[in-house]
Amino acid sequence: MSEAFEHLWTPYRMAYIRGAGKPTGAHDCPFCAIPAMSDEDGLIVARGTTVYAVLNLYPYNAGHLMVVPYRHVPDYTDLTDAEVAELGAVTQTAMRVVREVSGAHGFNIGMNQGSVAGAGIADHLHQHAVPRWGGDTNFMPVLGLTRVLPQVLGETRDLLAAAWPEPGTGTRPAPAQPGGQA
């Protein structure tokens, strides 16, 4: 193999791995700050009453969404009944929309509760919805230890947001442009 292909670099990840910029409380929590941003700047796909859906800034796969309560709580047991219900409903909608837009074959849905369980931001609960396709684990993550995303996050956000049903109506907006992939 050529020397040029022996290393794939993603240096922006090192700050994340080392914990730089990780929140120390609600005052610097990115999940608390995101709702104050525009949907485009915050990569917000949809806003609900108690939770919102946002693209993961460090996605495992294209279209990797997170459903996040607005309240700064660390544990699933801290959610109210209304938050649990909306978190589930928004997760279902996320799955439907991602399937519609990108043809996902399956999903990994889950939460990492606490740092020891792998939560990158343990102080603010968030549920991952990671779309999967047959053969999506190709040689790049296995050999190159990197992921290939076919689209920049802003474009993915735009496609998913355009396909998201109007709140409370279940009515879908006009279909996304053909050929788009989340």
TrEMBL record:
UniProt entry keywords in alphabetical sequence:
Nucleotide-binding, Nucleotidyltransferase, Transferase
- Protein name listed in UniProt: ATP adenylyltransferase
Species source reads Blastococcus aggregatus
HIT domain segment(s): 30-139
- Segments for region (Disordered): 163-182
Which residues catalyse the reaction? H126
InterPro entries, from UniProt? AP-4-A_phosphorylase, FHIT, HIT-like, HIT-like_sf
Instruction: Note whether Nucleotide-binding occurs among the keywords.
Output: yes
Q: Does the keyword DNA repair apply?
A: no
